[in-house]
Amino acid sequence: MSSAKEIGKEYPPEEEEQNILELGRILAKDQHVHPGKWRRGQHPKHHGCVRAKFTVADDLPGVLRHGIFKEPHVFNAYIRFSNGKSDDDRNIDVRGMAIKLLQVNGKKASVSEQFTQDFMTADNPVFFARNVRHLLDFVIARDSGKPIQEIAQNFPKLIGFSKLPPASPLETRYWSQTPYLLGNIAVKYSIKPSKANVSGKSPVDDANFLRAALKDWLVAKPAQFDFLVQLQTDPDAMPVEDPTVEWDEMVSPFIKVATIEIPAQTFDSPGQMAFCEALSYTPWHSLLEQRPLGGINRARRPIYEESSTLRHQKLEPSGEESF
Length: 323
Ligand code: HEM
Prior knowledge:
By secondary structure, this protein is of the alpha+beta class. The protein has helices at 16-29, 132-143, 148-151, 209-218, 270-278, 295-313, and strands at residues 46-56, 74-83, 95-101, 117-122, 174-175, 180-182, 185-193, 223-231, 255-262. The chain is built from 6 helices and 9 strands; from the N terminus they run H-E-E-E-E-H-H-E-E-E-H-E-E-H-H. Strands 1, 2, 3, 4, 5, 6, 7, 8 and 9 form a 9-stranded antiparallel beta sheet that branches. The termini are far apart. Bound molecules: protoporphyrin IX containing FE. GO terms for molecular function: heme binding.
């Protein structure tokens, strides 16, 4: 039976806008948890922001030649590695890798940054909520104090979403989870570490060991990742509106489109750490040709903007300031 749905198209459900507003109101409250500190609503702890080069491959097929992949090019980038929630790296959590390409020219999906292209990824192939309503149900259940085991019955993809930490942020694979436009079709992204990044070490029993692992590696050696895209080839089996569904790699394999090189460097001066804290990433810092797709991404548009605005505009002293 042929599908009524089309490749690369969005299908917003009714009442999504109200649900996004309610979700945003609830999540903004999570931000002000320490006196004097407005941190990111999610992924508040960074291991570091490192300088990188993002080299677009020169042998790509025409179907991928859109947006920043239009022609071979080397972009300078900042990559921020983070934990999803916890300040203690030993905890079960989500790990994030957010890339910001610099000096990207073209028509943008958002006006908040004019010359950047962000890619946001985490260490699991799928998100745990199907759509905005499902995510709102999760947040309401969490805030009501329901035990997580009970909540998980309605969120089966929570299992495996948070996990034990890798030995280093340079040794794990990351996925966009949600889809993005590329020309006229939808794609998902993934970032695969080079085998040469593997230290052979185990996680260390220290709250900040991921930053230490990044620092120890990069002080002497570079690191490399492959940046991959996966094309949507079936609008039903590979939906745009449900990021809990993994797009089958056997049906549509990931294709390498760029190489990420992180040169040897130090990145933890107080100035660079403060710069890292102040940066803002959002999937909506994007060329229009590569804009985010699907309900979860539509919700991220106002919510990331609000999170960034709050932490940049609010100044409530705690007494712990140093000058
Ligand atoms: C509706 C669903 C989601 C909501 C409401 C949400 C919310 C947020 C917020 C508020 C921030 C902090 C923004 C800032 O202050 O600059 C953030 C950061 C982040 N989110 Fe999400 N998020 C969602 C889905 C996702 C998904 C699907 C991914 C997948 C890969 C993801 C990965 C990240 C990462 C890596 C960061 C850290 C960015 C940085 O390094 O600054 N999020 N998220």
